[in-house]
Amino acid sequence: MTTSPSSSSNESSTPPSPPSPLVLQGFTPPLSLRDFKLAAFDMDSTLISIECIDEIAAAAGRKDEVAAITEAAMRGEITDFKDSLRRRLALLKGVGEDALAQVLRDRLRFNPGARELCAALKAAGLKLVLVSGGFTYFTRFVAAELGMDFVRSNALEIIDGRLTGGLVMQDWGDICDGEEKRKMMLACAERIGATPAQCIAVGDGANDLPMMGAAGLSVAYHAKPKVREQAMVAINEGGLDRLLEILR
C-alpha cells in the first residue's frame, strides 16, 4: 500500500511527546528519609551543569570532537567507558593547566537544587558520596561545597604545567567507570553499616546505571532516555531538590 505524500508529511512532522516532569515507578510514594543512610551522586551534568572534560576540550579547540564521544558514552552507545575516556584524554594532550582553572572559575555551576538536596540529606543524617568519571581538580571543589563524606574520581596527569593525555594511578585504580562507582557506593555503605537497600544513587548517564541498579532508590536527573527508563525516579523538569517531594 502506498502512503500519500500528505499523510507521510503529517506523520513525520508530529513531534515526540516530552517526558513527564517527574516520573515514579516501582514504588509507592512517599518514602521515609529514615529508611536511607547514604546517597551517592554523579557529578558532571548531575550535581553541576557541565561536562568538565568537554569544557577543557574547548580550550584546546577540540570541544566538538570530545563532546561527541562524551554524548555517545552517556547515551550508552559506547559501552566501554574506559576506552571512551582514554580517547577523549588523548585529544587533550598538551592543554595547559590554566585551562582547568578557567573551567572551574568561569564554567562550573551547580545545578538547581543541588545544594538544597545535599543539605537536607545531611541534616537527616545521611552520608554523601561523590563518584565521578570526571577529575579530582573539580571533585575536590564540589565535594567541599556540598559537604561530601567520600569521594572517588580520576586524577589528571600533569607534567610541566600541561596535560599528558593520561591519568595518575591511584590505590584503587586509574579510571572511575560505572563498575567502580557501584563498588565505591557499596564499600561506603558497608563502612557505615548500611545495606544497599538503604542507599540512594543519583545520575544522568549510562555509566551511572550500575550503582543505580544496586541502590534501594535510583534517581535519574535530566538524564539520557536509557537512564530515565530504568530509574525509579526520573526528574525531567526542575531541580534536584524535587527528590524531596517523595522523601519525608
Mean pLDDT score: 93
Q: Count of DSSP E strands?
A: 9
Roughly how many Å apart are the termini?
A: 56 Å
**Oligomeric description of these chains:** single chain
Helical coverage, percent range = 25-40%
Structural class comes to: alpha/beta
> Gyration radius, to the nearest Å?
19 Å
Query: Main sheet?
Result: 7 strands, mixed
Name the poorly predicted regions.
1-11
Task: Tell me, briefly, the overall form.
Answer: globular
The helix count comes to 10
What would you say about this model in short?
The protein has 248 residues and is of the alpha/beta class.
Descriptive labels:
10 helices; disordered N terminus; alpha/beta
Layout of secondary structure:
Blueprint: H1 5-12, E1 22-24, E2 38-41, H2 52-59, H3 63-75, H4 81-90, H5 98-107, H6 114-123, E3 127-135, H7 136-146, E4 150-154, E5 156-159, E6 162-167, H8 178-191, E7 199-203, H9 209-214, E8 217-221, H10 225-230, E9 233-235
Helix pairs in contact: 2-3, 2-5, 3-4
Description:
The chain is an alpha/beta fold. Helices cover 39% and strands 18% of the residues. A hairpin with a 2-residue loop joins strand 5 (156-159) and strand 6. Residues 1-11 have low confidence and may be disordered.
